[in-house]
Amino acid sequence: MKDLTNFANILNAELFIANNNEITSSKESTPASNSNLKEIKKAMPIFSNYPQHLYQALNFSSGYILNVTVSTDTNVYFLFDFTRSTFSESQFRLVSILTKLNPISQTIYRLYTAQVAPTENIYIHNRHDLTSIQRVSPNNPDCASYYELEAEILNAVIYSNQDDLVSALDKLPLIHFFDVLDLEHATLRQKKDFIVSYIAILTHAIDQWGYPIEKAFKIQADLVQEIEHSTQLPDLINTLKGITWFYFKTIQNYRTHNFLPLPDRIMSYINEHVCDNINLDDIAKAVHASKKNLNPAFKEKFGITITQFIRKNKIDRAKEILIVSDAPIPDIAKQLAFSTPSYFIKTFKKVTGLTPKYFRNHFLEDELNQ
To answer: What range(s) does the HTH araC/xylS-type domain occupy (predicted)?
Structure first.
């Protein structure tokens, strides 16, 4: 159970376990967790109607729920809420949870049962397919409605209007656009091309609004790189939703950044640049503060030095990559701006007590720490 909870935390998911319809959560009761519990309860009857599928996923306005049936009376749910600010800190985490639903589901099964996970494909539910709305599909996609909705989405993003964004994204699967395009038979390349063009539109919108152009292009480059590396895109519409929420939280965080206390601005910068070679000079310039004031202010609030926080953050990101990808250790070291693979391994072991290879096997090859 501890391993499963750790896995949920690394993926920034909320863990729920239902045993004979009695639900327990990994988090203490809060307004946000209570809202998520309601989403789980709404989804449970839908999942139960498809007992032949061990792995199922269902999207909602601001995220999605992953359901893994681990026994006849027990289900494990991972709820991903894209409105949480931590999703804007990692393009890698976002794209991984959107595109690697099968391996994540299998890992959940292994961690809970300590058994080899079945390799069946995940079954994706779409909210609009579960409603009683009568839909008459034309022969051609309704491009006009799509472009109108796209404008609604862009306005909600750049003006940080969450209610408008929820409303717009809820309409996305209902317009006669994606159904006519026959997504079930679209090639992986076709899906990637659509997502890449969508990312470019969002990037242009936030650049026009006033978000720093170099940061906007870096977001675009990183997201496109992760999409291009993806070997599957099981749910195109939910992938578009997740990317939209990423841009929304990025702009929302940028709006409030200048009003944060110095230690929080330092933390925000480090989170945003965790894959870079971060130094105090860069931080001081970015947060408009004296270099000598950085460490005292940061340590007073968070109890650790900036260097210690950078190291911890990089290792936390390395854990994500190790779990949800098969990237070689040297590639991970390079991606996180470690000088050499050996230094990365040394740092990882110093922080976690484990080598990167052992950590990966521990989660993905059933070498569980009982």
So the answer is: 264-362
